[in-house]
Specification:
The protein contains nine helices and twelve strands. The protein is an alpha/beta fold.
Length: 287
Amino acid sequence: MKINKIGLALAFSPRMEAMMAEASRLLHAYHAQLLLVHVGEETQEAKNQLQALLSKSQIEPSQVKILWKKGDPADCILSACKEEQVDLLIAGALKKEQFMKYYLGTIARKILRKANCSVLMLIDPSVDRKGFQQIVANAEDSAYVEDAIAAACEIGLREKAQWLHVVREVKLLGLTMSSMDDCTEDQYNELRNNLMRTEIKNVEKLLARIPHAGLKINIKLLSGKSGFELAQFAQRKQADLLVVGASPRRFFFFDRVFTHDLEYIFQDMPCNLLVVNPKQRKEVGRG
């Protein structure tokens, strides 16, 4: 994942310092430039607070550009990212009131559907994080699956992750329905095992095209309710980052249409989420 410019949608909130620390860590890891976007009033007090925070986060003035915007938050952030050619936008997800669960609100969903860059949604930004250690990557059949796995491998290598878990969904229901009346239990088990072996080989072929030497990789096949099983697996592994590929844009609209399983994850996020959008490629479905 090529990252020359990182955008940070910044709000003056209790998580402000942690969000800046996360941006600083990635900024130095990728030797990138930082674009700060704040939708709100540009006051001297706010400018002083921001400059103090930049200094504390060890971000030099030459590394950062600050934009103060007024208007619809999502529209302002999206337009700034497009105009400034941002490669990765960092933003914060919201926590449900009275529940230790996170979800994407209206602004975040709009950003994910319309952003022309990759988006990192943080539910638990930390000043002290020492990289993402348990990474889960979704190896779904999609236009950008290879880009997503490549991004997960690169992050894992850069941050010396303990594990990268590459997860692929196996649709056993279709196999069960098609073989229900036509084979014995032993024959069905053989068909099932062949399917599992084929899916593992498909993931191995994908990984063979992506540099990952030195990274510990676990290939995991899941079956069941899409999205739910992926989220449950991420929670069991105590993942601190889930990587998925962006959906291609619709033909006549600018919005992205995410599959049901990803919509489930957006509603009840198990961990930090990276949606990889290889903007350098021509969008699928655009004329």
